[in-house]
UniProtKB/TrEMBL annotation:
InterPro entries: MTERF, MTERF_sf
Keywords: Transcription, Transcription regulation, Transcription termination, Transit peptide
GO cellular component: chloroplast
Listed name of the protein: Uncharacterized protein
One GO term of the biological process aspect: DNA-templated transcription termination
Family: Belongs to the mTERF family.
Gene Ontology MF terms: nucleic acid binding
Amino acid sequence: MSPRSSPGTRSSSAPAWDRTLAPIVAGLSGLGLSRSEIARLASLAAHRFRRKDTVSKLEYHLRLFRSFENLLRAIKFCDLISHSLERVVKPNVALLRECGLGDCDIAKLCISRPRMITTNPELVQAMVTCAQDIGVPRGSVMFRHALLAVSSVGKEEILLGCPARVEYLRNTFRWTDAEVAIAVSKAPAVLTRAKESLQRRSEFLISELGLEPAYIAYRPAMLMYSLEGRIRPRHYTTL
């Protein structure tokens, strides 16, 4: 058995609570975080953890994400500490609130897409506009899902309003403009499906089963199901 380390000896795996970190550790402890939780944050944030505004930023994000675990999940995918609260994060959160999203909805959205609050506010505004343009109005139940879908596409497409994806849906399923809007408003995630996946579903549902395009537009959730694992088996078991 290895001898215990003396109080003045740090193990290689232990966080170095030096003079720079001491005020940060004290501040985060004051927010109710344990030493182990602080160590987990420090390991993810690396050198950025030493910033003077770390405590104030993490205090804000803890309130926004509603729990330490949610915050930790977000930090794994996004460098929250490096972004300005006043110039970037707070304006984005304010915009999302203007869109009718409550704090719980914003937290859910940001856990999945932390960049929704760290991206340039102009791009987030473009995402909001794009979500509206594809047929999902602000304040609707599906608006958060529309933002989630829009945020998954490239910056260039967002700035253009996702016309290529909308056009592909229209042509692939023989939808009218109104039917595209209906389908996307009911299942915004169809925008994120691969073209090949949508094409296969169109061929099976319309060409093979003979379903009317309008029928599919009002039931777009079927486009999210596995073709081989769910749609085909269900059809053939009813024959």
